[in-house]
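Researcher: Next entry: Restriction endonuclease subunit R (Limnospira fusiformis PMC 851.14).
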Amino acid sequence: MAYFRLFVGLTALMEKIKEYGYIVDYKDLFRQLQGAVTDYTSGAFDGYEAADVAGLLCDRLSKGCDRLETTLEAVRALCEPVPRPRESADYRHYFCTPDTRDQKAIAANEPKRVAFYQAVNALIRAYSNLANEMEAAGYTPQEAETIKAEVRHYSQIREEVKIASGDYIDSKIYEPAMRHLMDTYIRAEPSNLVADFEELGLVQLIVNQGFPVLESLPEGLKQDHKAIAEAIENNIRKIILDESPINPKYYEEMSELLDSLIEQRHQKAISYQEYLEEVKQLAKRVTDPTGSAVGNYPPALNTSALRSLYDNLDKDEALALKIDQVVITTKKDNWIGNRFKEIEVKNALNAVLVDAKVDLPLNQLLELIKQQHDYQ
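Model: Predicted structure:
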């Protein structure tokens, strides 16, 4: 009875963690797996009704086949809308954007990308569970090789889409285990080091290391200049969208500069090398607004919060300094998210803005202030 309770407890725990797993039977409680599967009421389950224990044990290979087929079909279904001939660029355009001038496409297509990443991750795990036992699971050598090629294809597309969209940063903590599975069961060739991309991102690597880093991109990205340019533009666009709440005016200017650069590339107004140099300078300004623009601000505006206030308050230095002081002296600990503490700051700001001539509404100013790390 105690062993049965232990088994049921382990089964319940595994159901919370993953869909199925292994229990090592050191005491031969289940005798032979085959016998346990065909006769639930023998061995450890002696004395229990068959209906009570039915379904607790199942054939691992059979379950693995079902899981592999299900996850493979799920990935195929997600990729069905990808335009033919379904080359690398077709996947990137579908999951990212066919036109990097579209400012909303990267964010709008994020749910599709997340679903794709999750489905491919599940496929990789399902395949890894059977990779060394495909023939034992009932697949012919030809079928096994076809499935392996398909899993490899989707894993490569997943990596390209993540880098092209800038999404790899968000799930970097999961990547070491996933890379291990891919390197062990899927890739036959030496794997590319993608850890640097996951730690810093494509744009920051370009700023830090220059354009030799582009040689580390997956083959489907570095094959042509257009693919590289689109990946860089998508990554810069994502940073602009993510950082815009901190300083809307500044990143609006960065977005306009990016649009202009993209248009020049489309019109072939600049060479590829000129484009790379221009995009590197833009990348520096996007990733480090303080360092790249410090000379454009009055000396008294020596924090990022002050510069953000200055940019969004019609370049009014005196007003920016006054609001900064009001916020610092008024805000309480853990004020953001506390309704009463926020109202206190809002009332103090309203008193300052009574005689000020600015276009920024009070509520928007409060939200801007809440985004500043200096005030948190």
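Model: Note for the record: The chain has three domains: 2-58, 62-229, 297-375.
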